[in-house]
Amino acid sequence: MKIITFSLFLSLGINLNSLGQITAAQSVPTDVAGNTQRLLPVGTKKLSAMGVSMSPRLMALSEKFKAGIQKDPSWIIEQTKRAKPGPMIYDKKIGMTEAEWAEYQTAIDPGNLRVAPQFTGDVKIVRDKNTLRFIATDKLAMLNDSWFDLAKNEVHIAEYVLPFVQETTVGTATNVYGSSWKAYTWEMHDPQVDDFENLDFEKIKAMKKLTVFNVQLGKLDKTGQTFMKLKGQSIVNGVSKYSFDTPFFFQE
Predict the structure, then answer these.
(1) Is 50's pLDDT higher than 50?
(2) What is the sign of the dihedral through the CA atoms of 54, 2, 63 and 244?
(3) β-bridge pairing 43-54 and 239-251
(4) H/E element holding 66?
(5) In terms of Cα–Cα distance, which of 216, 129, 213, 211 is closest to 166?
(6) Rounded distance between C-alpha atoms, residue 81 and residue 98, angstroms
(7) pLDDT of the residue at 13
(8) pTM score, two decimals?
(9) What is the pairing mode between strands 226-236 and 239-251?
C-alpha cells in the first residue's frame, strides 16, 4: 500500500472533512483551556505525521481524476459547491470512464480508507505562562510556527490568529481515523467571510486573495491518542498557492 499526504489527497478532489465528520455534532465547549493542557502536557513526545494508505489501483484512478480536473479547475470547484449529499454525479470531465468512477467512489468510501504514519519524530511541548509552544526539528519543524494562547483561547500560526470556533463530536468509527473522536476547532479566513462554507469559485476570484487556516485538537476514543490536525490554504487570483491538511498523532 502506498501512503500519500493529506495535502495531495485534497488535490485529488476528495473531501476529507466529510470523511472524518460523517456524524459530527457541535456542542457548547467546557473548559477549553484546561482540556487543551491535558491534551498537550509539557514534555517531549513522539509525534507522527499521518497520510492516507492507498492501493496502487486507487492511486492510478486518483491520478486520472487529478489530470481530468486540472483541465478545468473551476468546474470541479463549482460541482463540489453544488453537490448534494452522496457521490458526485458522473461527468466525462472527471477524466475516467463511468465504470472507473463507480470503482473510485467505492474505493474512497470512509470505511475503506485509513491513515498511517508517514514520518515520526520528537516534539517538545513547553509552557510559558499562558502559552503552549512546540519545539521540533526536521520535517516536524513546521509546528514551531504554531502555538496555543490559553488565556485568549486562540491558536497562532505565524502572524495569523485563529479564534476558537466549536467543539465537535464524531460518534462513528467509519472515517479515516478508524475511531469515534471529539475535538476542539480554531479557524480563521482572511478576508473574513460570513458564509464561508458556501463560498463559490467566482467570489473567490473576485476577492483576489483568500487565506484559510484551521486547527483541530482532540482525542481518539479507540486508542486514547491525542491528535492535532493542521489545515491551511492560500488562493491568489483564483489560483491555489499552497494547500495542506495534515493530521498528527501523538504516540502514547
Answers:
(1) yes
(2) positive
(3) antiparallel
(4) helix 56-70
(5) 216
(6) 21
(7) 41
(8) 0.76
(9) antiparallel
- Residue 133 in contact with residue 126, Cβ under 8 Å? yes
* Widest Cα–Cα separation across the chain: 58
Calpha distance 251→223 (Å, rounded): 10
Respond yes or no on whether the N-terminal peptide bond of residue 117 is cis (omega within 30° of 0).
Answer: no
Better-predicted residue by pLDDT, 18 or 172? 172
Sequence-distant (6+) residues with CB within 8 A of 74 are 201, 238
Grid coordinates belonging to 73: 479547475
Are the beta carbons of 154 and 78 closer than 8 angstroms?
no
* Residue 18 pLDDT greater than 60, yes or no: no
CA distance 236 to 93: 24
Listed residue (74, 91, 94, 71) closest to 14, CA to CA: 94
CB atoms within 10 A of CB 23: 11
Contact by Cβ (8 Å): 189, 231:
no
